[in-house]
Specification:
By secondary structure, the chain is α/β, with parallel strands linked by helices. About 40% of the residues lie in helices and about 15% in strands.
C-alpha cells in the first residue's frame, strides 16, 4: 500500500508548495483538491496551464496524484444545485488526465440543503435513492467519456451510509467505472471493539475488488472524529483485512493538522511495515 494524504492538509494555493510539504512529511501520494491551485474545489474551469502545473509539481516532488476531489451534493433537494455540481464534475473529469489521475472522489449526498456532510431523515426515502441513481448514471456517462473512475465513500450522514448501500449502488448502476473509497471511521460512531472489527470485516468483504482507495482517520470513545492513531479504531485489524482482501492501493489520511502529518506518516508506515 502507498501512503497518501489530503493535499488540502497543507496551507497554500500553489501545487508545488503543497506537494513539497507532503513529501517532507513522509507521504508518497496526495488526494488533490483544486483549492490547492487557488480555485474552488469544484471549479467552473481548469485551464490547461493550471492542470499542467499540478502534474509538474507532482513529478518534481516524486508525489503521485492518487485522486482529485469532485464532491458535490448528488441528492440536493434543488435539482438546479445538482445540475451545477454535475457540470463542475465534467470540468474535473476533462482535466483529470492532465492532472495525472483517473480517480475522482464523490459525495453521494444528503437532503440537507446547506451542508453535504450533514445527515437528514429524508436520506433514507425511496425518492432520495431514486435521485441518486439518476445522478450517478449521468456521472458514469461522464466517466466513460473521459476514461475516469468515480470513487464513492460510505458516510453515515449521506444517502450511501453503509457498505451494504455502497454494494447496492454498485450492483444497480452496473458500471466498472464506479468504485469505492473506504473509510472505516465513517461506518460507526460508537462501537465496542468486537463489533467495530465485525463492521470493518463485513464492509471489506462486501466491497472487496471495488475498493481502490482506503482512508485513514479515527474516532474517539465519544464518537468524534480524531487524527489517525489517536482514537479507538483498530488499525492493525483494518489494514490486515484490506491486505487479505487483495487491496494494494493508496492509504490516504485526512482530518489532521499539517503539524500532525509527520507523526501520522510514521504511525501508518510502521503499521504497513508490520503487515505479514
Amino acid at each position: 500500500m502507498r501512503l497518501g494524504i489530503f493535499a488540502k492538509t497543507f496551507p497554500g494555493n500553489d501545487p508545488g508548495t503543497v506537494m513539497s510539504a507532503a513529501r517532507r512529511a513522509g507521504y508518497a501520494a496526495v488526494q488533490y483538491n483544486m483549492a490547492c491551485s487557488g480555485l474552488p474545489s469544484m471549479p467552473e474551469a481548469v485551464a490547461p496551464e493550471v492542470a499542467a502545473a499540478v502534474a509538474r509539481a507532482a513529478r518534481a516532488n516524486g508525489i503521485a496524484i492518487a485522486a482529485v476531489s469532485g464532491t458535490y451534493n448528488m441528492i440536493h433537494p434543488d435539482p438546479a444545485v445538482r445540475a451545477d455540481g454535475l457540470r463542475r464534475l465534467a470540468v474535473l473529469a476533462e482535466a483529470s488526465s492532465a492532472l495525472g489521475t483517473d480517480l475522482i472522489t464523490l459525495c453521494t449526498g444528503t437532503r440537507d440543503p446547506a451542508d453535504q456532510w450533514r445527515a437528514h431523515p429524508d436520506n433514507r426515502t425511496p425518492e432520495a435513492w431514486r435521485d441518486l441513481l439518476v445522478e450517478m448514471e449521468k456521472a458514469v456517462l461522464l466517466a466513460e467519456r473521459h476514461d475516469v473512475r468515480l470513487g464513492v465513500e460510505p458516510e453515515l450522514a449521506n444517502v450511501v451510509d453503509s457498505a451494504e448501500k455502497a454494494r447496492r449502488l454498485i450492483d444497480e448502476i452496473g458500471s466498472p467505472r464506479l468504485v469505492v473509497v473506504l473509510d472505516p471511521a465513517n461506518l460507526f460512531e460508537e462501537a465496542l471493539l468486537p463489533r467495530q472489527r465485525e463492521i470493518v470485516s463485513e464492509a471489506i468483504g462486501l466491497l472487496a475488488g471495488r475498493i481502490v482507495m482506503a482512508h485513514a482517520k479515527d474516532r474517539d470513545a465519544a464518537g468524534r472524529f480524531v487524527t489517525a492513531g489517536r482514537g479507538v479504531l483498530d488499525y492493525k485489524h483494518y489494514l490486515a483485512r484490506l491486505k487479505a482482501a487483495g487491496f494494494s492501493g493508496d492509504l490516504v489520511t485526512h482530518g489532521l493538522a499539517a503539524s500532525e502529518a509527520p507523526a501520522v506518516a510514521a504511525f501508518l508506515s510502521g503499521l504497513l511495515a508490520e503487515l505479514p
